[in-house]
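hiii so my PI (J.) wants the whole complex modelled not just the main chain, which honestly fair. so below is everything: two entries, each one labled with what it is. i double checked the lines twice but i was tired so who knows lol
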Amino acid sequence: MNPELQGRVFPPAPPYLVGREKVREFSRAVFATNPINHDPEAARAAGYADVVAPPTFAVVVQEATLAQLLSEPGAGIDFSRVVHGDQRFSFSRPIVAGDELTATLTVASVKTLGGHSMVTAESNVVDAGGEHVVTATSTLVVRGDE
Amino acid sequence: MSTAPTLESLSVGDVVAGGSFPLTRDSLVRYAGASGDFNPIHYRDDVAVSVGLPGVLAHGMLTMGFAVQPVVDWAGDPARIVDYQVRFTRPVLVDPVDGAVVTVVAKVGAIDEEARVARIDLTVTFNDQKVLGKAQARVNLA
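here's the output for the full assembly
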């Protein structure tokens, strides 16, 4: 992996519009049964504009930025050797249907450990007003030759 | 909306939530569609075996996704989850016939009185072995 990637900031990914049915579909997939995740009335009663996404839905928004990193020609990342090591989400607020979110990836660190490389990528997600929603951080391990 | 737990009512070590999640191959296909992660190691045995795995695995992000749900329900409002992190340490093999059952136990790991945040530590196991390391959700109980 190219060590000069460290500190690189990628261009913002195209905005992601959070759909109500997508939130419901994702909620079912992660066994989220709370009415706030499925029923707009329940969500409004709880003070939200629309159905609320489960915490890890942020990965769907983050994905476009990881694709930028993995497809970067100069990165030297062999996708077939990538293993997801760690994942973290730090929230300012939950994601709600109707949000238009823009994610920007920064390569926080690149490390080599034995034959393996590790890249930590931080995707900063903001809403249409530019306010922070969530930072999604992934550490990807790229296995070396065995 | 359920009432929030109070920080004062918690002690380190208290079990606050938990659950048992039966996964089938259908669960993996459903998560693939919902998340957009179509890596074939999560639905094709031949591909999984060709890359040295014993068989089809659950998406790590699926396990991370459901493991926090008991904590979200306990907290009462998803906005109280201010931070959630995991390390993927072991795969969850999902048998085509029998599926896989993943168990979650959520305990109070630490209490930050000043920030009004409880750190909830998740023990997530499959076949009596932990599949996530350092699985922690920070819950704001201000």
